[in-house]
Write a structure and sequence with these properties.
Number of helices: 4
Shape: elongated
Strand content: 25-35%
Structural class: alpha/beta
Helix content: 25-40%
Oligomer: single chain
Number of strands: 7
Largest sheet: 7 strands, mixed
Order of helices and strands: HEEEEHEEEHH
């Protein structure tokens, strides 16, 4: 009887290990909405577009529960690369020439991009915060501006990764739109 129970336990454990009973890794999908531009205000201007990710951590979501280690969730895509693609596309659609040799550059620095969740028994509270610094160099002159966005939300029961993802992407879209449509930036470029 003992031998049969032990064999059954071993067989069940092996079946679980080989069939993928382990939890799958959660990842945030970064997919900001297309940036709506307000015309061709970068027409006849050229610049390099760069993105530097200077965050202290690589994860985007921290879920904290009482008496438990924080659950850290990364993104599927490289955040800096995704932002660079969306920012470049929006600037080009606003008339910016990124192919001509130039002394101008637009550098977006990712200072902070995090969703912190405090998970309780019956509800959760989520705080999404993004902070970007944009450094525009035109010849020898430099313009530096910081953009922030914060969103506090809460919900019943456990935090839903799809809701956190949606909120993060909406905040990211908002910041990118502010940057592309900032009159100070496009007037500064020569």
């Amino acid at each position: 009887m003992k031998k049969t129970s032990l064999s059954l336990l071993i067989a069940t454990t092996l079946a679980c290990l080989t069939s993928g009973c382990a939890t799958t890794a959660k990842q945030l999908v970064i997919a900001p909405q297309a940036v709506m531009t307000q015309g061709q205000h970068y027409q006849q201007k050229s610049a390099q577009v760069l993105v530097d990710d200077l965050r202290n951590t690589i994860h985007l979501v921290e879920i904290h529960q009482e008496d438990a280690a924080a659950e850290l969730i990364n993104s599927q895509e490289n955040l800096g690369q995704t932002i660079a693609e969306h920012l470049t596309q929006a600037l080009v659609s606003s008339g910016l020439d990124i192919k001509s040799p130039t002394n101008n550059s637009i550098t977006l620095i990712i200072n902070n991009a995090i969703v912190k969740v405090q998970q309780g028994l019956l509800k959760y509270q989520a705080n999404t915060q993004l902070t970007f610094t944009v450094r525009v160099k035109s010849g020898e002159q430099v313009l530096t501006k910081t953009y922030n966005t914060k969103l506090n939300s809460e919900g019943a029961f456990n935090a839903d990764l799809a809701v956190l993802e949606r909120d993060f992407n909406q905040q990211l879209s908002t910041l990118l739109q502010q940057i592309v449509n900032d009159s100070e930036i496009y007037q500064f470029l020569q």
